[in-house]
Amino acid sequence: MARIDLFRMERMQSLYWHEVEYDLSESGVLPLTIEELLELGGVPEPASFLRTGLGYPLSEGSLESRERIATWYPGATVDNVTVVNGGSEANFLALWTLLSPGDRLAFMVPNYMEGWGLGRHFADATDVFRLKLHEGRWTLDLPALQRAAGRKRTKVIMVCNPNNPTGSVLTAEEMDAVIDVARKAHAWIVADEIYRGAEVSGAKTSPTFWGRYDKVVITSGLSKAFGMPGLRVGWAVGPEDFIKNLWVRHDYTTLTPGMASDRLCAIAMEPHTRGKVLARSRSIIRQNLPRLEEWIATHEDIFEYARPVAGAIAYVRYHLPVKSTELIDHIRKEQSVLLVPGDMFGLGKGIRFGFGYEIERTLKGLARVDEVLESVAAR
């Protein structure tokens, strides 16, 4: 039987998020309600949504949904898009489509570690390259990328941009470097861009890898930047032949998106509505982050922090004599607060904080974290 690694972060969250008093492990913003989305979308008769027939939608997502998703990727057409159940299924299907036994995956770390495990499952190995914290920002370790992608039979380079857990965004020069390495290796790029659109400052949306190279696949969805994780809407954007091959595999997993979710996706991705949804997310992030940063600053003797560029997540490295999973387990058991440890992103001593929900409640949870940090520092 082919091996599959335990997805440690997802298992931890599924076990404990509903048991703790303060769940600060969530990486999105406060979810929209259906009523709010219909209002933002200017749906003239919201009650008409209740008359949606609960049959099967098109396997690849409705034409309307795919056309509107395509408008977010310059030059994309409806034939470049397929709709699936969440960004996680998009990642799964993309790597299943591209990787075979004997291949290797070059994988960005830190990252949402789904791809790391899938590379080890569908291919022979996953080789990592890193982002490094340098002078206040997370930067691409280009020599490490060149080494990872330079191995024989490297088939895919996978990046997460904007990045989870750091919230960093690659510069234009770094994106060009990734493409140059991929081209020399004749490798695909799979870019998880699920936090794109949730920028901390400015009106400009983070750049996409789409259109920069002919062997690019984008995975994304409505869960993070759009604040609709419960819809379980994800998508893949790629060359037409790739999309057809992914569809073959989708027939073996969830077959179709949900009918209600597909209708709501079409509303959310209408360009004018999309702008309003993302403006809401950015407003939440911009109001909440300074409050979190005030708390982080009270621990500047043990924390090392670089401000996120996008996403409702912040990552700190800490200087304490305890490993990250042990520290987070202690916080959960003693204070009923759930956070995510750095080693679940391929890092070491660090913590990811979600700050996209009600900030006063978040700060109450962090006050409990203070107690644990003080006790550990005093050892």
Verbal overview:
- The relative contact order is 0.17.
- The protein folds into 2 domains: 8-33 and 274-373, Alpha-Beta Complex (Aspartate Aminotransferase, domain 1), CATH 3.90.1150.10; 50-271, Aspartate Aminotransferase, domain 2.
- The radius of gyration is 20 Å and the shape is globular.
- The strands form 3 sheets. An 8-stranded mixed sheet has the order 2-9-8-7-6-3-4-5, with helices on both faces. Strands 10-11-14-13 form a 4-stranded antiparallel sheet. A two-stranded parallel ribbon has the order 1-12.
- The termini are far apart.
- The mean pLDDT is 97.
- With 379 residues, the protein is α/β, with parallel strands linked by helices.
- Helix 4 runs parallel beside helix 5.
- The chain is built from 12 helices and 14 strands.
Question: How would you summarize the topology of this molecule?
Answer:
Blueprint: H1 8-16, E1 22-23, H2 34-40, H3 63-70, E2 81-84, H4 86-98, E3 104-109, H5 114-122, E4 125-134, E5 137-140, H6 142-149, E6 154-160, H7 172-185, E7 188-192, E8 216-221, E9 234-237, H8 240-250, H9 259-268, H10 271-297, E10 303-305, E11 313-318, H11 324-335, E12 337-338, E13 340-341, E14 350-354, H12 359-377
Parallel strand pairs: 1-12, 3-4, 3-6, 6-7, 7-8
Antiparallel strand pairs: 2-9, 4-5, 8-9, 10-11, 11-14, 13-14
